[in-house]
């Protein structure tokens, strides 16, 4: 058990005496944000370790919430700065206020737990390096795959594996929408339902345009290939332009339409991308239903390992957040070390594509890079007006 935070700013150090602090005081948890994920985290923490919860910061302390806490704090900086708080749990999301608070917590050497994939996918490498300097730790199991323990698996159990490929279905909202469309539902209705169920981001364009999946892929690729990795260079196509005809065209061929996010070795290079793709029904990537996710790791030694489960939703995500909090309290190794070396640079993922044009369709004989889909449409346009160009996933390609 820890007796004092590892690094304190001087004013905190002056105000905390190792001899007098109680275990409760130095193990305090401060929760920032009480939305879908934050409120599930709060409920679980108050069930498991009520004595450790020192503060819960929310935008509006007077708004009624389904959390048994009567002292919500309107100032998240106060919660971060509270010397009794050692573990700062960031459930605000986005890269504005959340970023500032995480930086402040790291600067004070506190343990940070976050589900914030936007922040980790854009600034994770240097935040991890910063944390290493201040004695803080940074844990973000919940940033990818909701309840699926993939971050820890990659950083720990698979830490020596030579990973050849990582990825799968990483966004629950788009999977929910495509699944509903597969069952005949309308795109807008399905998206509205995903929003109501709390799966979607506050701006669902982050889901449907593939940003969320690209963030998660960048995080996984960094862990898998052990290089600093951010999502800026990940090529991305979303699902907003897909319609019933696209779903039907796949179903006729025994394929299911999924939003895939994959990074794989190709010779010396790493190919990466987020794209709608047809997947054969028996393939693991075709299996997730509703807001489910699937992540597959293919390694030279371990072969193919498939992790599947709830990829979105308050309680599923909170399960991973709370496990990280418990790990932080136990002082177990930060599972995400800062990676040294050059940033991961990727090339566009390649796959064979189904070109559907008036009067027919064809699967290209060779894989096409994701940034060449329009050029491919122009080539096949000689056969008739092209209606869609959609990758077809095959492990052999
Ligand atoms: N909007 C995200 C999704 C939430 O649908 O997967 C979980 O990261």
Primary descriptors:
Rossmann fold; 397 residues; 23% strand; 6-stranded mixed sheet; alpha/beta; 2 domains; 5-stranded parallel sheet; Dihydrodipicolinate Reductase, domain 2; binds L-homoserine
Structure description:
The chain is an alpha/beta fold. It has a 6-stranded mixed beta sheet with strand order 10-9-6-7-8-11. Strands 2-1-3-4-5 form a 5-stranded parallel beta sheet, with helices on both faces. Strands 12, 13, 14 and 15 form a 4-stranded antiparallel beta sheet that branches. Strand 3 (85-90), helix 5 (97-107) and strand 4 form a beta-alpha-beta unit. The chain folds into 2 domains: 11-139, NAD(P)-binding Rossmann-like Domain (Rossmann fold, 3-Layer(aba) Sandwich); 152-310, 2-Layer Sandwich (Dihydrodipicolinate Reductase, domain 2), CATH 3.30.360. It is globular. Helix 3 (36-48) packs across helix 13 (314-330), helix 7 runs parallel beside helix 11 (211-225) and helix 8 crosses helix 9. The protein has helices spanning 10-15, 23-26, 36-48, 76-81, 97-107, 117-134, 150-157, 172-182, 187-196, 205-208, 211-225, 244-252, 314-330, 373-380; strands at 28-32, 53-57, 85-90, 111-114, 137-139, 163-169, 255-266, 269-280, 292-299, 303-310, 347-348, 350-357, 360-363, 368-369, 386-392. The chain is built from 14 helices and 15 strands.
């Amino acid at each position: 058990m820890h007796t004092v935070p590892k690094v304190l700013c001087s004013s905190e150090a002056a105000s905390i005496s190792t001899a007098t602090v109680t275990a409760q005081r130095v193990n305090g948890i401060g929760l920032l944000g009480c939305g879908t994920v934050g409120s599930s985290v709060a409920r679980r923490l108050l069930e498991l370790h009520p004595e450790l919860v020192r503060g819960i910061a929310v935008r509006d302390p007077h708004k009624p919430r389904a959390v048994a806490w009567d002292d919500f704090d309107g100032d998240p900086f106060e919660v971060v700065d509270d010397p009794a708080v050692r573990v700062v749990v960031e459930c605000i999301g986005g890269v504005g206020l959340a970023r500032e608070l995480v930086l402040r917590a790291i600067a004070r050497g506190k343990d940070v737990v976050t589900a914030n994939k936007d922040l980790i996918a854009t600034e994770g490498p240097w935040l991890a390096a910063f944390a290493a300097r201040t004695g803080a730790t940074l844990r973000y199991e919940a940033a990818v795959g909701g309840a699926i323990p993939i971050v820890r698996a990659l950083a720990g159990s698979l830490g020596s594996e030579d990973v050849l490929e990582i990825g799968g279905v990483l966004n629950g909202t788009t999977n929910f929408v495509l699944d509903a469309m597969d069952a005949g539902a309308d795109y807008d209705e399905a998206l509205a339902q995903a929003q109501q169920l709390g799966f979607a981001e506050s701006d669902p364009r982050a889901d449907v345009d593939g940003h969320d999946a690209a963030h998660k892929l960048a995080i996984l690729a960094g862990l898998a290939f052990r290089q600093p990795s951010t999502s800026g260079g990940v090529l991305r196509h979303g699902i907003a332009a897909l319609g019933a005809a696209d779903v039907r065209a796949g179903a006729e061929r025994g394929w299911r339409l999924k939003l895939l996010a994959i990074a794989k070795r190709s010779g010396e290079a790493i190919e990466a991308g987020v794209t709608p793709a047809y997947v054969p029904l028996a393939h693991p990537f075709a299996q997730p239903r509703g807001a489910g996710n699937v992540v597959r790791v293919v390694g030279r030694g371990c072969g193919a390992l498939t992790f599947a489960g709830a990829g979105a939703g308050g309680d599923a995500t909170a399960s991973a957040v709370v496990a990280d909090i418990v790990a932080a309290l136990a002082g177990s190794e930060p599972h995400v070390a800062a990676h040294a070396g050059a940033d991961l640079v990727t090339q566009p993922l390649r796959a064979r594509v189904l070109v559907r044009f008036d009067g027919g369709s064809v699967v290209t004989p060779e894989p096409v890079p994701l940034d060449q889909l329009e050029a491919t449409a122009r080539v096949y346009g000689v056969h008739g007006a092209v209606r869609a160009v959609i990758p077809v996933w095959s492990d052999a390609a």
